[in-house]
Amino acid sequence: MSKLTTLSRTFLTAAVLSAALAAGVFASSGASPSADPGATADSSGAQSDAPPAKEATDADSGRIPEPKQIGGEPDGIVQVANLVYAGTKSSTCFSDHFLVQAEKDSAISTSRRFHAVKLSSEELFEFPLVIMTGEGEFELPDAERQNLRKFVEGGGFLLASAGCSSPEWDRSFRAEMAKVFPELPLAAIGMDHAVFHTVYDIGQLNAKHGNIRPLEGISVAGRLGVLYSQDGLNDTAQTQGCCCCGGNEITNSQQVNVNILAYALLY
After folding, report:
1. Which of these, 9, 23, 50, 90, could form a disulfide with 15 (CB 3.0-4.6 Å)?
2. pLDDT for the residue 95
3. pLDDT, average across residues 137-151
4. Adjacent-strand bridge partners of 159
5. pLDDT exceeding 90 applies to what percent of the chain?
C-alpha cells in the first residue's frame, strides 16, 4: 500500500466528523468544514473531499477484519503521534491532555495518549496529526525532511511548538522549514482562520507574560498543514516529569490544540 493511500485510510474519521459538525455536535463552534478561508499561503488549490465511509462492515461481507491500527487501538479511534526527530530528539514533554478534552467537548474519539513515532519511518503516515517540540538546536537529516514534506503534502498535519519558548529551537525549526518547504514560507495565521473555529470559537490567544506572538503556518494547496508556535502550545500544567522554566506558553493552549486536532481531521 502506498504512503498516501495509507494516510487517507486514517482520515476516514473525517467523514464522520464532518457530519457531526454539520449536525451541531461540536459544542462551541459556528464554523463549517466546507471551506478553509484562512489559508496562509498558496490558497489557489482546490480542497479535496473526505474519503467516503465504508458502506458495509467486514462481518457483513464475510471478510477477515483488518488488524488494529499501529498504536493498538481499533479503527475509528484517532491516534496522535509525538515525533522522534533529528535522530534521537523527542517530543515527550508535550502534554497529551487535550486528547481527553477533545472527547469531552466534541464527537472525536481519541486514544488519549500519544504514540512515539520516528520522523523517518513509514509509521508516520498512519497518523493525521503529529507533534514536534523540544529545546535547543537541532538539524534534520535529508530523509526526515523528505518524509515530512510527503506527510504534509499527503494530508497530514504538523503541530510544532518551541519547548519553553526556546530561541535555539525556534531558529532551528525555521531553518528546517525553509529547507523542507523552500517555496512556502511560514506566515502569520489570523484569528479568523478556520483552525480557531472548529470545536471552540477562539477570539484571542493568551500567554503567561502577556506579549504573545501570532501562530504561524504553512499551507499546501489551500490547506493548513503546518502550525507553529514560537511561544509554545504545551499545556505545561498537565505535563509530568518535565520542567518548563521561563517560557511564555499560550495559556489557552488546550482549546487551541483541540481545535487543531479537529481541523486536521476535517480539512
Report:
1. 50
2. 77
3. 98
4. 131, 227
5. 52
Q: Which three cell numbers mark 46? A: 482546490
Please, are residues 245 and 164 in contact by the beta-carbon 8 Å criterion? yes
pLDDT confidence of residue 31: 44
User: In this structure, is residue 71 part of a structural domain?
Assistant: no
Domain that holds residue 111: 3-54+76-235+242-266
Residue 47 falls inside a structural domain: yes
The reported pLDDT for the residue numbered 238 is 60
Q: Are 129 and 159 in contact (CB under 8 A)?
A: yes
Predicted local distance difference test score (pLDDT) of residue 243:
56
> Looking at the DSSP assignment, which residues form a beta bridge with residue 158?
130, 226
Candidates 171, 176, 193; CA nearest to 260 is: 193
| Angle (CA) 38 41 43, round 5° | 70
Q: Which residue has the cell 457531526?
A: 20
Total domains, the chain: 1
- The DSSP code sequence of 15-57 is HHHHHHHHTT-STT----TT--TT-SS-TTSPPPPPPPPPSS-
**Percent of the chain residues topping a pLDDT of 70:** 67
List the CATH number of the domain containing 194.
3.40.50.12140
Give the integer Cα–Cα distance in Å for 204 and 172. Answer: 27
Residue 66 lies in a domain: no
Q: How many residues does the chain have?
A: 267
What would the pLDDT profile of 41-67 be if each residue is shown by its tens digit? 443 444 444 444 434 444 343 333 333
Residue (of 166, 91, 176, 173) closest to 136 by Cα position: 166
DSSP E strand boundaries for the chain: 78-84, 110-118, 129-134, 157-162, 187-188, 216-220, 223-229
In a domain, residue 24? The reply is yes
